[in-house]
Specification:
Layout (H helix, E strand, L loop, with lengths): L4 E3 L2 H19 L5 E8 L2 E10 L2 E9 L2 H16 L4 H13 L7 H12 L8 E3 L1 H11 L1 E3 L8 E5 L15 H8 L3 E3 L11 E4 L5 E7 L8 E3 L4 E6 L3 H4 L2 E6 L5 E6 L1 H14 L5 H21 L1 H14 L2 H11 L4 H12 L2
Parallel strand pairs: 7-10, 10-12
Antiparallel strand pairs: 1-6, 2-3, 3-4, 5-7, 8-9, 9-10, 11-12, 13-14
């Protein structure tokens, strides 16, 4: 237990775990193309769900190799054998998870994210980042975050030609799908009005959808991503998030299965993002640090090994600026959360 987060009751944890399993059944039918893999790393064995595509494969982190994880895997295999789960069952489980304490998303975000999911974005490897991912990670970890750090109007979707399989040729460009998903949605013009848009807003509101992609080379305002047939804003160090993802289900109506970054990587990347904010975004910088600290505090209590793996990956990333800004962010954490990370880095 921590002042930064509260443990959800066991009923909420169980309801979410069953919901995620059934939502995956709904989305992958009988499990065709999906396999479970056990991988050895320096700190032990870990399980991954691998999705095989015609043109490649994606792996999503499940958890450390223990009795609970193995039991969930066997349960998932049995449910795949049983076939599809009816939509009403999923809707009931979403409602039960919310009633037990799980954090829901709003209807507008649900409509946009459902439309994005229907294009095959998340099956192809697209990733939900930002505050909606933070909400999803809380439900995944079985905790509730401080409410003032989960309020958001921004949906951030990350896509990369290097990290994704292209969505089917007969699917509309993701930007067009977003424009049609919500009444009043408009493209946000770039500073150079002749440039392609990477953002979308609902007229008269603060609701916004941003398409982003890893930055390669010199900074630029937009880059065409073939995997989604749309332009996205290049963002530095985003590849660190996209390298290790796992499945999550967002809570509203019949749920939306998405990919989010492994929680430890999400937190460390948030620390970097905070350092890169301009002085005009002080509130957003504070929110980045607060979200990162809540996830770090939870992982130090629940699964510190995940933090050590994420720190090892950051070191292997080999980018001095990334490490410098991550360490600057770590220094802004409270002592109880800062010292374990600093201590680990000193041993590497």
């Amino acid at each position: 237990m921590s002042e930064l987060y509260a443990d959800l009751p066991g009923s909420a944890r169980l309801a979410y775990a069953e919901l995620l399993d059934n939502a995956l059944i709904r989305d992958v039918a009988t499990g065709t193309g999906f396999t479970f893999l056990r991988r050895k790393k320096s700190s032990g064995y870990y399980w991954y769900l691998q999705h095989n595509f015609a043109g490649g494969r994606r792996q999503h982190y499940i958890g450390v190799d223990n009795e609970e994880t193995r039991a969930r895997i066997e349960q998932q295999k049995a449910r795949w054998e049983a076939g599809k789960i009816e939509a009403k069952v999923i809707e009931k489980q979403v409602a039960m998870t919310i009633a037990a304490g799980g954090r829901a998303i709003d209807a507008r975000a649900y409509r946009v994210l459902s439309a994005a999911a229907n294009t095959g974005l998340f099956n192809a490897g697209g990733v939900l980042v930002g505050s909606y991912a933070f909400v999803a990670i809380g439900n995944m970890l079985g905790v509730s975050w401080r409410k003032d750090t989960t309020i958001t109007q921004d949906v951030d979707l990350a896509a990369s030609d290097r990290a994704m399989i292209a969505i089917p040729q007969d699917v509309e460009p993701l930007g067009d799908v977003i424009l049609k998903a919500e009444t009043g949605m408009l493209s946000v013009p770039m500073l150079n009005r002749k440039g392609p848009s990477t953002s979308y807003m609902v007229q008269g509101s603060e609701f916004r959808v941003d398409l982003i992609t890893p930055r390669i080379g010199k900074p630029k305002s937009a880059e065409y991503v073939h995997a989604i047939k749309s332009h996205a804003q290049p963002v530095a160090f985003l590849e660190y998030l996209l390298e290790d993802t796992q499945k999550a289900v967002l809570l509203h109506k019949s749920g939306v299965v998405v990919n989010v970054a492994q929680p430890a990587r999400f937190a460390l990347h948030k620390l970097v993002v905070a350092q890169r904010r301009p002085s005009t975004e002080r509130n957003k910088k504070r929110k980045d640090i607060e979200q990162a600290e809540q996830v770090i505090a939870c992982l130090l209590d629940q699964s510190p090994g995940d933090l050590w793996l994420a720190l090892d990956a950051a070191l292997a990333h080999g980018v001095k600026k990334f490490m410098q800004q991550m360490q600057e962010g770590i220094e802004q954490l409270d002592e109880a959360n800062r010292e374990p990370l600093v201590g680990y880095l000193c041993t590497r």
